[in-house]
Design goal:
single chain; about 130 residues; 4-stranded antiparallel beta sheet; globular
């Protein structure tokens, strides 16, 4: 059984930084890309960032470009999301997701992902 376990969420002041981690485990784990999504209260889940395991190609939502950085450690099967210059509107539950395969052009779509973590809360205060 595949498990994705997120960590690193918390409360931070606007302008601050947090780093989220997502560790993947399970004998059947097979993935070509990992992504981060978030969901704020009363809003739909939205794409934040994604990275391919092999080439390390990265993709970002316009709202986080230049502030967030996604990276991966292939040995540890772990993906990170470094979040800098956090804003109030970044407050949300952040979910890690993995997909087995699929074309790049759907990497921003949550329906293309096969595995999901339980989510970690990120709260940005003023």
């Amino acid at each position: 059984q595949v498990q994705l376990v997120e960590s690193g969420g918390g409360l931070v002041q606007a302008g601050g930084s947090l780093r989220l981690s997502c560790a993947a485990s399970g004998r059947s784990f097979s993935s070509n890309a990992m992504g981060w999504f978030r969901q704020a209260p009363g809003k739909e889940r939205e794409f934040v960032a994604a990275i391919t395991w092999s080439a390390g190609n990265t993709y970002y939502a316009d709202s986080v470009k230049g502030r967030f950085t996604i990276s991966r450690d292939n040995v540890k099967n772990t993906v990170y999301l470094q979040m800098n210059s956090l804003k109030l509107e970044d407050t949300a539950v952040y979910y890690c997701a993995g997909r087995q395969n699929g074309p790049v052009y759907v990497i921003v779509m949550d329906v293309s992902y096969d595995y999901w973590g339980q989510g970690t809360q990120v709260t940005v205060s003023s």
